[in-house]
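User: Here's a chain of 283 residues. Predict its fold as tokens.
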Amino acid sequence: MTQSSQLTAKILIEALPYIKQFHGKTIVIKYGGNAMIDDELKSSFARDVVLLKLVGLNPVVVHGGGPQISSTLEKLGIESSFVDGLRVTSQETVNVVEMVLGGSVNKEIVSLINSHGGKAVGLTGKDGNLIRASKIDAKEDIGFVGKVDKINPALVRHLEQDNFIPVIAPIGVGDDGETYNINADSVAGAIAAELQAEKLILMTNTPGVLDKDKQLLTGLDGKQVAGLIEDGTIVGGMMPKVECGLTAIRHGVKTAHIIDGRVDHALLLEVMTDSGVGTLIRN
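Assistant: Prediction complete.
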């Protein structure tokens, strides 16, 4: 046996206890960042999702699409503006958001997963009243930007039982049928909590939570995370991701993971290996 073959066998054996532990369990994956833009990383992600499904896990994908929305708005001559990191979303803008997220971006992900042997189905929050939403509380009126009020998981559960992979665009529907653009991390966290998922995985363009010496931190509990926020270690764009993970855990999700989507097969490495590639947060 060659050294390469021995290494392959070792990797497969390392994955075995994780396959057994997570068989039949749901994992919710927020897909975004460079992994949605780079062609090789897109293919890597799709293969990872299909493999997880084939070995008995139930992956549920929630995706973003901010750069694609901005690009389309620019082509249409619609100005983009932001308040506290949130896109100001007029009626005209939310129509474009729905077209991009629920249309081109969602269907590209579905098609890619299917091309690697999966059975993916694209959804938005309007399908089966999956994501009920209302206007977010903000300092000023930023239009149709929403927050999750309720997740109705029946459709996702039916798809899981029939071995489909749900791919969900973060678009919610209001009481009067209004369309709301919602932060994808928040949607992923809410869906993970409602499904009582084993894991919530947030893909980013950073290695995870880093200490002040830029070393990766993992195996963090709520108390440790609070300390890192208090001493200024966790700041900026990492803050909402960490808070999303903590909220999901408080509502029954076993673990939350913040992983580097720029790493090839990051999803598989995080779920199926001892070392992982990101920050794990637990109760």
